[in-house]
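=== Discrete structure encoding ===
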Amino acid sequence: MKTAMRLFKYKNMNIKKLILLIMAVVSLAACHKDLGNYDIDMPIEPKLANLDSVYTASVGDSLIIKPKIEGADAANVELQWKISVMEGNDVLYTGPALRIIFGLQAKRYAARLTVFNKANGMKYFHNFYIDGGTEFASGTTVLSVEKGITQFSFVKPDGSVQARLYRAMQGKDLPPNPTNLFLLRNTFTGGTLLGYWIITKNGGTRLEPNTMQEDPKYPNTLKDNFFTQPDDLEVGSLISHPQGVMMGVVNGKFYGGTTSTWDQAATYGMFGLPADGDYELAPSFVMSFTQSATYFIGFDKNRKQFVRINLYGAPVYFGTQYSVTTTNAFDPTNVGMDLVHLEQLNNADCFAYCKGTDGKIYELKFNVQFNGPFTFTPQHKRLFVRQELINENTKWSGAKNGVIYIANGSKVYRYNPVNEELRELATSFSGKTITMLKLTEDEETLMVATEETVSFLNISTGMNGVFIKKIEGIPGAPVDIAIRK
């Protein structure tokens, strides 16, 4: 009897377990099946039409962007606009269309349109860009002298000339005796524009590149560009450094624009103290630049010797602290002549044109190993082949391919120092005096200026200065030119 009872209980327990297992399986199946019974009611995403990825805006003009909303109740949709500005406050605007006067600088800005559905609180984002520009965003600027007055003009891409632009915009004249025009770019930061500098014999003026107005952020005169202002200013010569600052000879000393801060800081490019030393530099010098270092060779006109200057954040004068491989050609520490002009064709070959005590012009060729042990190698000293071509009015432009272009009077010559060949270029200037000689950045074109005109000549391989085009209507005689693309 007891055995039968135990068997009944055991079977009863198994039946209960089986029933529970069946119920669990059914329950799981029901749950799984139930998941498919729910319908998720997602809000309809509004679609945008007439919205581009990039817009171009002109500084001072209206910027209007008017997209079309599709797929949603327009009454419940709000458009929120944002233009991100790193240098200041972001531009915020709410409305069915962005309608503003574009007052930012001429550069690219990231922008975002937020589509806000007020009915359900959903937000949708659309990113795009705005490229700011001005009428001066591309073109050519020309520095010239008209009846003794310095003029600054702008040439539009279509060739039309806005003559005497500085005087028209500022209501005053530039300092007299212009020498150089620079459009400074910091190539270390992707070519950031840092302004135009108009350099004159005793001063200089800076202009914001997009407005051609005096830039309120930076020093606007050369004298103000010194941390410690000199009593008098006499510019020997200045050049633009790839970091977007100027370096060169002022009052016989060597100065370098500071690069130790952000290039948007007001002190960027300002001159500190000159390279300390007992020297007085001739105006002409050469620069060797690499990504890691910058070196200069100048000429002490009192001791009549070549001197070395290194750039370590600030310029440092080393004088004749360099090795000389041989003095058979000439002694760089005791040249014994006055420097007329110093031309560097690449990071190696340099040519100095000096006037001897006999009144004749000598050509000195030398090579300098700038990196590593600073080594000066004199290579030759010889009378220049055409003495009459070199005087205080001679124009020079040296190319990296080893050729020097020389202009005197109304003629331009291609000079090859290897064989001393002088070849007159094909284009004639009809007796007009040449006032400027400058290579384009790619060194495929030579720009030659005469009164009221800048001519562009083809000097690429096989071409001997064949005429390409010219700019006419420049007020007076051009001195320098800068091209903005």
DSSP finds two helices and 36 strands in the chain.
